[in-house]
Amino acid sequence: MAGPYFIKIQEFLPMKHTLSVLVENEPGALSRITGLFSGRGFNIESLCVAPTLDHTMSHLTLVTSGDEYIIEQIIKQLNRLVDVYKVVDVSEGEFVEREMALIKVKAEDETRAEVLRMCDIFRCKVVDVSPKTYTIEVTGPESKLKAVMELLKPIGIKEITRTGTIAIQREKKTL
Amino acid sequence: MTKLPGKQMVVEALKREGVDVVFGFPGGAIIDVYDAMEKDGNIKHVLVRHEQGAAHAADGYARATGKVGVCIATSGPGATNTVTGIATAYMDSIPMVVFTGQVPTSLIGNDAFQEVDIVGITRPCTKHNYLVKDVHKLPTILKEAFYIAGSGRPGPVLIDLPKDIQNQVAEFDYPDKIKLRSYNPVVEPHTRQIERAFKLIEKSKQPIIYAGGGVIIANAHKELRKLAEAIYAPVTMTLMGLGGFPGTHEQSLGMLGMHGTYCANMAMANTDLIIAVGARFDDRVTGKIEAFAPNASIIHIDIDPTSIQKNVKVDVPIVGDCRRALKKLVKVIEEDGRPPEVWKEKYQPWWDQIRAWNKRHPLTYKTEPGVIKPQYVIEKLYELTKGKAIVTTEVGQNQMWTAQFYKFDEPRTLLTSGGLGTMGYGFPAAIGAQMAFPDKLVIDVAGDGSIQMNIQEMATAMEQKLPVKIIILNNQFLGMVRQWQELFYDRRYAATEFSVTPDFVKLAEAYGAKGFRATKPEEVEDTLKKGLETDCLTIMEFAIAREEGVFPMVPAGKATTEMLLV
Ligand SMILES: Cc1ncc(C[n+]2csc(CCOP(=O)(O)OP(=O)(O)O)c2C)c(N)n1
Ligand SMILES: [Mg+2]
Q1: Of all protein residues, whose CA lies closest to atom 17 belonging to ligand 1?
Q2: A76, A81, A85, A87, best to mutate vs chain B, most B CBs in 10 Å
Q3: pLDDT tens digit string along B453-467?
Q4: How far apart, in Å, are the Cα atoms of B367 and each of A49, B382, B545, B563, B566?
Q5: B396 lines ligand 1 (CB under 6 A)
Q6: In B, which residues are within 8 Å of A35 by CB distance?
Q7: I want to staple A61 with a disulfide (CB 3.0 to 4.6 A). Which of A48, B9, B28, B41 is the partner?
Q8: What is the ipTM of this complex?
């Protein structure tokens, strides 16, 4: 028989989890969710909120981390909020995740071609051009964004904005 | 369909929800609701002297009756004054609806006079809250508020009413029933889980039932007793669970945890199966969690999934209403058909062990000639009231002595702030309980410190002609803190001694109430008798042994077996 033990002991390594949360489009709903995380000492690595086809609901993608028990608590605590309709741990199964970044990078004579070449390799788009900069749009999993940023850093990144992760579960491939 | 202004909608909703009494304090931002209540004339309003008192009174009313308690306050300071009361109710899962006035919608966010973002402030300590911005939504919000407060794991809900909304008119379409797509508490427990629970019970040699406040909230005391008697298992209760199982029952081990009985804590430490019902493995119960019940499997029944597997790993989680779960479990046991004697025999060695523990260290205290021991006062109080009173407590030693030495046989007879531990709770809560039960004996067991936190409500009790009895165990100390200082801070009594305390007898008289004082043990019984016989608000003050401690005690952070004993 398994005895009880202190669950907060990190028995499992903290893992990243991507939660998909459907919540009533009510004032205060978002603040309830963020308040829950700060009040209970859970962390939010990224948070992305957007409308859904049903205008009475909002969709929230939340990246957090913790061991199995912490994630279980987070999901239960979210579900306990009166405004929360549904919580899915997208990262439990197969899923696609994407993030977008807009990166304003220095592009002077000697580096302009280099930046374009990298855009090409990573399939980024140039969305704005000025005599001394390119602004490029990069989309992909977080790892790709990181890679692009690492490579552009030596050239000189002037500014970055990122969307935060969004994710969706893959449909079953078999019947 | 009728058109009504917002203020009148509030009054109509109160009536439809069966609210017969509300507790409150007016102000400019809520004056319109008050006016509508006055015109209507069907709702009894208790005017308190401080909004914290209103919130605790509504809470006491709710705990004593099981109904939703209601309180009303104005915007700004009125609203913030209710916060401690709201948080108190939240921590103990008490159904309550709080109405606050708010500045007109056009001024919200302007730092207007007496504006405060009470919805923001109370978000972490309410089950849900609303700022009403559209009067058309008010009927639904009112219905939702009462439904949410009272269903699932109950809790306080706040409705913030801007002044203009109170006066705007809309259709009053009050729903009879409500269904919320995002809020559906699971009440019906899973049958398979119940069967799994029974398998564990069958296997167990040393089970214990650990009952919490959920038993009382769910009105599951009868079913709990059936379960306990069916399998002849020992029962221990949390502070919030006292009364959920008769304290005088031969199977009761009393309270467990920091100031629990020796046998309850030893039984928890040695059990092989914990049947947790409506309890949440709070730190005051588990002590050092790594050392808690090392050999136990756990069955955990609770309506709130977040309570399960929060602090300890659970083998059989049962999400649902305690009463339904216990009913189902009892049914499975009955179908199994083993008579109680079989279980009794099976658990005989376990019971022998438990009785030996209890014999070794029963709940007790040392008597001293010429000095009133607080435990003696509570014992006498229990004797004289035959355990039939509704007892509220303040917080501190007075609370623990009451929990230990008054035997609560019935649910909803001990009203105490368990989760938040709010000094100043007991007296206004007693006012709320007495409003609900005018003919019952309602007693607040207080400390000299706590009673001063809401002493102003004496005027409220007098005004309402409520014969609440206040027992002050006066040790001239903030006793519980002093006890910690004595034990763990080398007796450095930093800020725990008042050099000025009012003469409580005179204070009672100043309010038009009665006051009695006992300074010697032989006066205790007489003072209690005199005090309990009055028909009005009464203070009975007992000058108790100043440095008496509450024992057993599990020092914070220690294993529950490491008890300091008398
Ligand atoms: C509002 C509030 N402030 C502070 C505390 C911390 N506290 C817990 S018990 C206690 C002492 C209470 O003194 P008293 O009412 O005289 O009760 P006693 O312990 O002496 O019986 C204090 C200060 C609290 N629980 N609540
Ligand atoms: Mg005291």
Answers
A1: B447
A2: A76
A3: 999 999 999 999 999
A4: 65, 18, 10, 21, 11
A5: yes
A6: 123-124
A7: A48
A8: 0.93
